[in-house]
Design brief:
Helix content: under 10%
Distance between the termini: 40 Å
Mean pLDDT: 96
Number of helices: 1
Shape: globular
Largest sheet: 7 strands, mixed
């Protein structure tokens, strides 16, 4: 079955950097769209970044220029490089996948959690001021 396992979460100071990883198994990795989401306590899950099978990427406005999503098909691994982290970005970060080469429609739809079928358990990122 499909499994997604995130890692790389940690506690960092504001302005710091982290790289999250998501190891995928149980499916043909390079045929799925992938994404990162995050959820802070008491808040809804929000889309952070997505990447489709062609490598086309989408970012939430709040992370553009600071976060980079990438994937290594040979390693079946998705990454999220996060720079200049802010305290308000403290959250559980989740990896998600969808068995489509791309999610049609605009960026809002690509960043919608309802468009992704499979989810990891999450990795905690804490940013202190």
């Amino acid at each position: 079955q499909v499994q997604l396992v995130e890692s790389g979460g940690a506690s960092v100071q504001a302005g710091g950097s982290l790289r999250l990883s998501c190891a995928a198994s149980g499916y043909t990795y390079d045929r799925y769209s992938m994404a990162w989401f995050r959820q802070a306590p008491g808040r809804e899950r929000e889309g952070v970044a997505t990447i489709d099978t062609s490598g086309f990427t989408t970012y939430a406005d709040s992370v553009k220029g600071r976060f980079t999503i990438s994937k290594d098909n040979a390693k079946n691994t998705l990454y999220l490089q996060m720079n200049s982290l802010k305290p308000e970005e403290t959250a559980m970060y989740y990896c998600a996948s969808e068995p489509r080469s791309y999610v049609p429609g605009g960026s809002a739809r690509r960043l919608s959690s309802s468009e992704y079928r499979y989810w990891g358990q999450g990795t905690q990122v804490t940013v202190s001021s």
